[in-house]
Write a structure and sequence with these properties.
alpha/beta, 6-stranded parallel β-sheet, 3-stranded mixed β-sheet, 11 helices, 12 strands
């Protein structure tokens, strides 16, 4: 499958792009960073350090890149089998006009095969938001065609990808934690669901969106705030403080009680999920600064 991915930053390369490339997708990144685009096209590969209990170095190969502001990105949308994003919620509105132009060109070219768009952002129903923005730019005459063959699939994503170390002289190399979670709303796909290891379909997406927001994100921000107050520099340094760790665990347990009641999560499994998150925060191989998280 041919995938166009908006956003060649650390999350784009280290998480979504890697998952899709590992699933034998032909991944083309669309970005505004000309240096990054040139490097990706020149090397057509990049390194990903996956760190956790074990460490490994993966090489993501057979990738390409285009400018998200140029004409090439339109041509890629015409022929794409899947479109994904990892650009940040504030940038979604900016790529909506480009996506609308590409979809109009796709329809004009007679390509009415199903195409699914998945915004992999840290926001609730980000893809649905993107669809509303795309419809603002797409002429009304094309709206019915979009509804019939373009799926806008909401998702929940979870992987800690800190900024690359300043001492690293490879602009494409990225470090990620071993844990990752990419859950998609299977009810929103058009055509067949793509078979991608690491992408999990569900018919109850909001349960997982809220689980992440009120467990992982809640724990992350409580760690950052309390760590800042105690003069910590990194998340790991903060969570290794017994007082902070206890308060973070209690915050996640309190929000977890609501999640268990609302969505019927198994209490034992949710308790294990909380402990897993605490272990992720303490990952000695990730240098994740308090200020970034806060």
């Amino acid at each position: 499958m041919k995938t166009l991915h908006f956003g060649a930053g650390n999350i784009g390369r280290g998480f979504i792009g890697k998952v899709l490339a590992d699933a034998s997708h032909q991944v083309t990144f669309a970005d505004v960073n000309d240096t990054l685009i040139d490097q990706l096209n020149h090397r057509q590969e990049y390194k990903v350090h996956v760190v956790g209990a074990d460490q490994k170095l993966d090489v993501v190969r057979n990738v390409a890149a285009v400018s998200s502001a140029g004409h090439e990105v339109i041509a890629r949308i015409i022929t794409a089998d899947l479109v994904t994003t990892a650009v940040g919620p504030n940038i979604l509105d900016k790529i909506a006009s480009t996506l609308a132009k590409g979809l109009q060109a796709r329809f004009d070219a007679g390509n009415l095969t199903p195409l699914n768009v998945i915004a992999c952002e840290n926001m609730v129903r980000g893809t649905s938001h993107l669809k509303r923005e795309v419809l603002k730019y797409l002429p009304v005459a094309y709206h019915a065609t979009l509804e019939s063959c373009i799926g806008f699939v909401d998702s929940a994503v979870d992987r800690i990808v800190p900024p690359a170390a300043a001492a690293n002289d490879d602009p494409l190399e990225v470090t990620v934690e071993s844990f990752s979670e990419w859950i998609v709303d299977q009810t929103q796909f058009k055509g067949e669901l793509p078979q991608v290891a690491g992408m999990e379909p569900t018919d109850n997406l909001m349960a997982f969106v809220e689980r992440k927001l009120f467990t992982l994100n809640t724990g992350h921000i409580v760690t950052a705030y309390l760590g800042k107050l105690r003069g910590c520099r990194t998340v790991r340094e903060a969570i290794e403080d017994p007082v902070i760790r206890s308060k973070v665990r209690r915050a996640m347990e309190e929000s977890g009680a609501v999640l268990v009641k609302r969505y019927g999560f198994d209490p034992r499994l949710h308790a294990a999920y909380i402990e897993k998150i605490l272990a992720r925060f303490a990952n000695p191989y990730l240098v994740d600064e308090i200020d970034r998280v806060g």
